Amino acid sequence: MIRLECIVCGETYGVEEIVYTCAKCGNLLDVKYDYDYVGERLREAEYWRRPLNVWRYRELLPILDESKIVSLSEGGTKLHHCRRLGERLGLRNLYVKTEGDNPTGSFKDRGMTVGVTKALEYGSRAVICASTGNTSASLAAYAAKSGIPCFVIIPAGKIAFGKLAQAVAYGAKIIQIRGNFDDALRIVMDISVKHRIYLLNSVNPYRVEGQKTLAYEVLDQLKPVQPDTVIVPVGNAGNISAIWKGFKEFKLLGFSDKLPRMLGIQAEGAAPIVQAYNRGVEELSPVEKPETVATAIRIGSPVNWRKALRAIRESGGLAEKVSDREIVEAQKLLARTEGLFVEPASAASIAGLKKLLEQGEISRDEVVVCVATGHGLKDPDTPVRFGEPPVEVESTVEEVEKALGVSKP
After folding, report:
1. Which of 53, 350, 31 is nearest to 220 (CA)?
2. Nearest to residue 275, comparing CAs of 260, 253, 290?
3. Contacts of 110 (CB under 8 A, 6+ apart)
4. What share of the chain is helix, strand, coil (3-state, %, to 5)?
5. Mean pLDDT across 343-372
6. What is the C-alpha separation between 287 and 32, in angstroms, rounded?
7. Does domain 79-105+208-386 have CATH number 3.40.50.1100?
8. What is the reported pTM?
9. If DSSP codes are grouped into helix, strand and coil, which group holds residue 2?
10. What are the start-end ranges of the E strands in 268-382?
């Protein structure tokens, strides 16, 4: 009932094969299902009675042996109706999906629960990834839970300590290279094939399948309302394409009756997908030295660019870039109006929303969902570096009152 299919040439592969890209043309693969069969099973199971988490939707996930499932109770993240922020921006129906609620603090857990489960199905003895931070934290956690070794390749000096600390704590073998993320990904892809170590970057079609469950949750949480627009930060570009697939599947199965626009937001210093979208081309010009304060999306050659462009164009959406200044301001704005602390990459969706509202690309009456991909504690240095420093005074009531600006009774 499941197969892999090349997104360009249509070549198909059976699930018994460990394959990441098309052997015929080198492009990415997508997981295909028998939707008549899947839909019948979902309805018979009355999936909506299950707890809200990734495995609530297990019939739509590519797992053959449920006894192998490796789970940390991922998914079921909160969907916040952000009224104060909405009022500030002039938007009536604004929601923020906080993926920092996941076990390791980012959306990557949705993919890793499926990816590591698939590794166990294949009998893999170890797993590997390249990472700018969140992928390594998530993979290390799920590998620890499953009891198999985890290898992580990272660009030296380019990962927020909040993320690196997690990978260290979970016991991953971490190698730093003198290069960027794209160099690290090239290396792990080579090693995974040579040594039969299961690769769990988003080039792996099974891993990104877990990430599409965010779309199912949004639809279930908003019922009977459905989103008009979904805004997603874009780095390696697996998330926006996976979420779009989730929305399409629920509509195909009759669980929703419309599709949202998908808006992808990149940082100015790492925006090759925005450039391709604006030029109207079906090709990517990589950014050789990507730089941005939003380390989670500091990727110059996103492997899922073709899928992302397809999702944006199919949905009638768009791609936009935001500056580091806009990202930092958006992070503050969300925290100070809604009490939601997200990492800089997550704040890119809020920064993009603000910019697109000003440009008239989003109507004030739309139902908008912004995806906040990771928790603020993933990168605690950024708000400290760009925020207001604490005021230091002598340890007396009078000096503290003076600093606080409160009058004497």
Report:
1. 53
2. 290
3. 54, 74, 75, 99, 102, 210, 211, 213, 214
4. 45, 15, 40
5. 97
6. 32
7. yes
8. 0.94
9. strand
10. 318-322, 367-372
| Cα diameter, the chain | 80
d(CA 289, CA 118): 33
Q: Residue 408 — pLDDT band, cuts 50, 70, 90?
A: low
User: What span, in angstroms and rounded, lies between the C-alpha atoms of 5 and 29?
Assistant: 5
Give one DSSP letter per residue of 47-86, joined into a string: GGGS-SSGGGGGGGS--S-GGG---S------EEE-HHHH
Residue 387's pLDDT band, with cuts at 50, 70 and 90, is confident
Angle, helices 134-146/161-169, rounded to nearest 10 degrees: 10
Domain spans of the chain, in order of start: 79-105+208-386
| Distance from C-alpha of 243 to C-alpha of 199, rounded to nearest angstrom | 21
- Number of residues assigned to the chain: 409
CB 35 within 8 A of CB 253: yes
For β-strands 198-199 and 229-233, DSSP reports them as unpaired
Amino acid identity of residue 140, one-letter, is: A
Angle between helices 272-279 and 305-314 (to 10 degrees): 50
Instruction: Lay out the sheet containing 173-177: strands in order across.
Output: 173-177, 150-155, 127-130, 198-199
CA angle, 131 then 165 then 266, to 5° = 40
Element (H, E) at 383: helix 381-386
